[in-house]
Amino acid sequence: MTAGPILSLRGLCFGYKAAGCDTICGVSLDVPAGATTAILGPNGAGKTTLLHVVLGLLSPREGEVWVAGRRQTERTRRHSSRLMAMVPQNEYVPFDFSVLEYVLMGRSPHIAMLGMPGKADYEVAAQSLEMLGLQHLAERPVPELSGGERQLATLARALAQRAPLLLLDEPAAHLDLGNTARLLDLIEVLADQGTTVVFTSHDPNAAATVARNVVLMKEGRVLDSGPLESVFTSGSLTATYGIPVKVVTVEGRQVVLPGCAP
Question: What is the C-alpha separation between 213 and 192, in angstroms, rounded?
Answer without folding.
Answer: 15
